[in-house]
């Protein structure tokens, strides 16, 4: 019998080993507990996880609930906003137009949009279609996004204001993540195809891939059935957000999908553009989108080997343990997501969450990747959460200090009346400050109104040294300090800031 057992083990070992490679123990034994712990730890109401291996769905599963305080469960067909994972779809549409010989990606933007203007004539005449979606136009990451994000501006106005921005860096010299470039891409797609971005997307990708419930626009997402609600964290508590209309920048981040439907996109990406044996996206188009154009940075990993990160047509391209990773993340109000491809391993991963203050959507991705590569379990989520707590401790200390200053009801060195009035930013437009009476706290405050953000207000409380603490009515815009410039008892200007999730830059508004 012993010899028989040894023979059986020898015969079965290749099959046992193959099975373990296809379905690591982390996936079969630990995934559910890891996800449920992550949801509780990060206060994530709901999530969905997809794993595709060798053209087959290994996992497509929902966890938690669609809305905090309810029992409405997330399933594999529940829609999440996928944010900037939209960008790879837009990059693919441009590459499809090139495959159809309707454009060349090296073509200048002005060839298709002759009225497009940037504040540098040479750049205006040389900016090409690759530049606008590979983040090499000379702007800082997120520069300008405050002006557009959830604003009342149309797509045309976004493009107009984008052209007026003063670049921080020289053209094509530095990576700077620029969402508005995709609005320009949307207009080019419309001009060349004769169809709006959303309709061209549906015709060329969504319908052929049977992604019939996937939404192109945020307004359609809000009206769809089986959707998750957006959430954030405000002072340690989960907070339900309203849906935002971000369709003036649709091509950069307005899509919504489920893990069940995004699986078709991932399967096609991993199978040379084929789904169920039928070509949906030409392989040359897939290859074109994965050509590197912009150096993002040199990279390092907590434990394993990696060297570089590059950017293609809506995809981040990087090496990891000698393998190629093609991926992207997405973040919009109330949602953060990740989509990851490992072409040589024929592995695809998607993690969707409906709380925009978490790193779980990334930690789970790395855990899954390592498990399939046979690397040690690292418990990334504990590491990421520990780092989050350290950052949170520092932020909470700062917030308590500035709130204490605001509670002291310090009187400004000049009359509060001097701060009232209209202010103007050279690109954004107008802002207005008015004195309001806070009856609950028995003090006077300033209220901020913004010309192109009709749904947002800011409450300004004086904290000394010509500074006000601004608390936005929309918590995704954050709590920030506005310094004012005062000369000879007169207010000259103030610098407006928003949460870094939206924009890093200061916007100087000058009093009229």
Kindly describe this structure.
The chain is an alpha+beta fold. Helix 3 crosses helix 10. Residues 1-21 have low confidence and may be disordered. The protein has helices at 2-22, 25-42, 87-99, 109-112, 121-126, 129-133, 145-148, 155-164, 181-193, 197-206, 218-223, 250-253, 259-270, 283-289, 360-373, 380-407, and strands spanning 46-53, 56-64, 80-81, 231-234, 237-240, 256-257, 274-275, 278-279, 294-298, 308-311, 316-320, 323-332, 335-342, 347-353, 421-425, 429-438, 443-450, 453-464, 467-472, 479-487, 490-496, 507-511. It is globular. The longest helix has 28 residues, at 380-407. A hairpin with a 4-residue loop joins strand 13 (335-342) and strand 14. The chain folds into two domains: 2-390, DD-peptidase/beta-lactamase superfamily (Beta-lactamase, 3-Layer(aba) Sandwich); 408-511, Lipocalin. The protein is built from 16 helices and 22 strands.
């Amino acid at each position: 019998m012993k010899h028989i057992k040894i023979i059986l083990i020898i015969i079965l070992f290749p099959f046992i080993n193959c099975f373990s490679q296809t379905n690591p123990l982390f996936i079969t034994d630990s995934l559910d507990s890891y996800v449920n712990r992550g949801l509780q730890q990060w206060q994530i109401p709901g999530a969905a996880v997809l794993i595709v291996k060798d053209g087959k769905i290994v996992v497509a599963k929902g966890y938690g609930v669609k809305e905090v305080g309810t029992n409405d469960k997330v399933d594999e067909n529940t829609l999440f906003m996928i944010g900037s994972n939209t960008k790879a779809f837009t990059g693919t549409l441009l590459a499809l137009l090139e495959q159809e010989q309707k454009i060349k990606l090296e073509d200048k933007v002005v060839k298709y949009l002759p009225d497009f203007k940037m504040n540098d004539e040479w750049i205006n005449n040389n900016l090409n279609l690759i530049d606008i979606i590979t983040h090499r136009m000379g702007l800082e990451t997120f520069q300008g996004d405050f002006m557009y994000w959830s604003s009342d501006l149309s797509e045309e106005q976004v493009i107009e204001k984008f052209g007026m921005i003063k670049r921080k860096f020289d053209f094509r010299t530095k990576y700077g993540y620029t969402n508005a470039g995709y609005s320009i891409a949307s207009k080019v797609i419309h001009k060349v195809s004769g169809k709006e971005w959303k309709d061209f997307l549906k015709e060329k990708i969504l319908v052929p891939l049977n992604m019939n419930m996937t939404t192109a626009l945020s307004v359609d997402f809000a009206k769809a059935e089986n959707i998750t609600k957006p959430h954030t964290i405000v002072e340690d508590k989960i907070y339900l957000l309203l849906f935002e209309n971000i369709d003036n920048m649709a091509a950069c981040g307005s899509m919504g999908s489920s893990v069940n439907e995004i699986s078709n996109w991932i399967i096609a990406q991993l199978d040379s553009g084929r789904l169920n044996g039928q070509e949906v996206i030409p392989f040359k188009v897939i290859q074109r989108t994965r050509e590197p154009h912009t150096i993002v940075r040199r990279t390092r990993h907590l434990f394993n080997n990696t060297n570089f990160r590059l950017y293609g047509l809506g995809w981040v391209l990087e090496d990891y343990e000698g393998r190629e990773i093609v991926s992207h993340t997405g973040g919009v109000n109330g949602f953060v997501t990740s989509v990851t491809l490992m072409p040589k391993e024929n592995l695809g991963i998607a993690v969707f969450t409906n709380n925009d203050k978490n790193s779980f959507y990334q930690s789970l991705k790395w855990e899954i990747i390592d498990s399939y590569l046979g690397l040690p379990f690292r418990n990334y989520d504990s590491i990421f959460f520990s780092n989050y707590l350290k950052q949170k401790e520092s932020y909470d200390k700062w917030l308590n200090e500035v709130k204490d200053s605001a509670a002291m009801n310090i009187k400004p060195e000049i009359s509060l009346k001097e701060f009232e009035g209209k202010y103007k930013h050279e690109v954004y437009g107008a802002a207005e400050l008015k004195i309001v009476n806070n009856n609950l706290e028995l003090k006077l405050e300033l209220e901020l109104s913004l010309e192109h953000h009709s749904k947002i207000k800011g409450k300004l409380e004086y904290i000394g040294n010509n500074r006000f603490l601004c608390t936005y009515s929309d918590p995704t815009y954050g709590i920030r300090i506005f310094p004012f410039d005062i000369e000879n008892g007169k207010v000259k200007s103030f610098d407006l800031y928003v949460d870094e999730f939206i924009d890093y830059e200061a916007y100087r508004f000058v009093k009229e």
